Amino acid sequence: MLFLDAIHCQNHSRPPVWIMRQAGRYMPEYRQIRSQYNFQEMIHKPELAAEVTLLPIHAFDMDAAIIFSDILTIPESLGRPFQFKEGIGPVLENPLTSPQDLDSLTPTTSLDFVAEAIKLVKPQISVPLIGFCGAPFTVASYLIEGGSSRDLKKTKQWLLRDPASFHQLLDILTQATIKHLQLQISAGADVVQIFESWANHLGYSQLQEFCFPYINRIISQVDAPVIFFGRGTVGVLEDLIQLKPHAIGLDWACDITQIRKNVPTNIALQGNLDPQVLYAPHDTIRRECQRILSGMEGDPGFIFNLGHGILPDISPDAVKVLVETVKEFQCAHESSPF
Ligand code: CP3
């Protein structure tokens, strides 16, 4: 299978392709289901989560599926549920406001519904299934901010003023995360991806203190290949390599071909088309995909993806063009006599 071969840096045909947030609002089929159920119902009902996971596989023939769920299931399982508010995003009912709140942050509800959804999806697909989680720092920031925030001001003030209790929080989240990834893997996830979506808010010494040690713990305790995606972390490539993930996900603000030269050949690279390129005319989409594909041609450890999640107002036709461009690259590549 292309995707697993590439994760193991042993892919000798065209690169596999999937898209972060591939099952989402840009798909009319998703919006149709969403008009009948709220987001919480969709992730909690295994039959619905499974159905939504399959949508982009059927519509675009992606080379990997990612289970339909959310990184905020971890706060929920620790007694801090969230609602998804239209036009605002996720809103936590009960954010953390002081270190005393950590005492109440204990495993409260099960995440078995994610395992159930995975078990329903597995027999229906012939491509690998990706499980996932948010990295502890990113999830901590949602718990403290109470939802999406532009500057993570409360989170940063907490970690700067009271690093000890921030570490306590990260430790609680790390334990829950390892359990959750193991649950997903036992249920059938072939690979897991860790999203450190807010890593770009941390300075270097903060990454070293509040991000890497916890990612390291997760990677070393999980029995499946791990993709680490840390937004804005390409400048600390050496530290990422030290974490020994199977693959590093790159955002779009870097030249993946250049990066390849500095990453050991046993670590795969995933990325990194600017998600907004999908707003462009189809020829531009093809050209920008081909630029990345040519730069990575023949690389046995390359997975084509966007540099971050797909935006909700992208046209499905643009996604078709992206996937076709990657898949046709195979033909050009394999029919070459040399
Ligand atoms: O990739 C996939 O298709 C799998 C499903 C998936 C979702 N969220 C579904 C979702 C994954 C991998 C995530 C991860 C996630 N969730 C992250 C990390 C990835 C990243 O983008 O950095 C974060 C930060 C979250 C938290 C979260 N959940 C946010 C910020 C939002 C609102 C985003 C928006 O598009 O406005 C959600 C809701 C959410 N999670 C939706 C989906 C499909 C949209 C819900 C809807 O309107 O129906």
Search tags:
46% helix; TIM Barrel; alpha/beta; 7-stranded parallel sheet; binds coproporphyrinogen III; 338 residues
Write a brief caption for the model.
This protein is α/β, with parallel strands linked by helices and 338 residues long. The chain has 14 helices and 9 strands.
Characterise this structure:
The protein is of the alpha/beta class. The chain has a single domain, classed as TIM Barrel (Alpha-Beta Barrel), CATH 3.20.20.210. Helices cover about 45% and strands about 10% of the residues. The protein contains 14 helices and nine strands. It has helices at about 1-5, 30-35, 40-45, 45-60, 75, 110-120, 135-145, 155-160, 165-185, 205-220, 235-240, 255-260, 280-295, 315-335; strands at about 65, 80-85, 90, 130-135, 190-195, 225-230, 245-250, 270-275, 300-305. The strands form two sheets. It has a seven-stranded parallel β-sheet with strand order 1-4-5-6-7-8-9. Strand 5, helix 10 (about 205-220) and strand 6 (about 225-230) form a beta-alpha-beta unit. Helix 4 (about 45-60) packs across helix 6 (about 110-120), helix 6 packs parallel to helix 9 and helix 8 (about 155-160) packs across helix 9 (about 165-185). The longest helix has 25 residues, at about 165-185. The chain is globular. The relative contact order is 0.15. The mean pLDDT is about 95. It binds coproporphyrinogen III. Coproporphyrinogen III binds near residues 21 and 90.
